[in-house]
Amino acid sequence: MSDALVDRYDLFVFDLDGVVYVGSEAVPGAVPALRRLRERGAGVAYATNNASRRAPAVAELISGLGAPADADEVITAAQATARVLAARLEAGSRVLIVGADALADEVTDVGLVAVRSADEKPVAVVQGYGPEVGWKQLAEGCVAVLGGALWIATNGDRTLPSPRGPLPGNGALVAALATAVGRQPDLVVGKPEPALFEDAARLRGAQRPIVVGDRLDTDIEGANRAGMDSLLVLTGVTRPEDLRDVPPEHRPTFVAPDLGGLFDDSAVPFEEFGKSE
User: Fold this and answer.
1) Is residue 15 annotated as part of the catalytic site, yes or no?
2) Where in the sequence is the active site (predicted)?
């Protein structure tokens, strides 16, 4: 058997922001790597904490960059959060959306009623990243949470990558609301919780999945919680200097400069990368 990672695993679960694209631009080397995986017939899934797009839109974005992707290969934290809400609430319950319309659509699809005003007496608040989230939406969330509503966040990512560098992510917006209401969310659904990765493996019947991500505190910790191997690529948030004194829960199995590490010897075990530094 080849030593290349591509020959060791039957499913490759990719994070998106910082791994496949940054903003609307492809990460260098990502598209050729994804094409090569497709040509080999390898299993591919995309697991994203970003709640601002629905699965078909995410697949369209990936395809528009030149890499093949289908909507059923995409698993979003917004989808997972909507399922959690549906399991906890009665059908038809009102849920206040602090986030993008895509999050509201996911909530609607599971039989709940998405609202934008605390005056509509929502029984829950769901908060996810959206570029339009600002004071007005946070104020509605504040009123609803202080009024006793259940508060669920799609994820706690403090930043998200952009061509200009890291920008505030949903975790930063959650922190703003937490400061106002004096407490943390009742539940955070997305990575590093293992559900997205476990769903991807289960839906595809994978026996040897590997998670590919750029964040130690979400992608890598989530893979470790799910009992899966991981590849950290240095194309997004994490820099080489961040790999010094990494706690066990944040240690990837392998580290590579980019997705080319799936096919060549540029991917090295974490322990070896640490020694080389």
Assistant:
1) yes
2) 15, 17
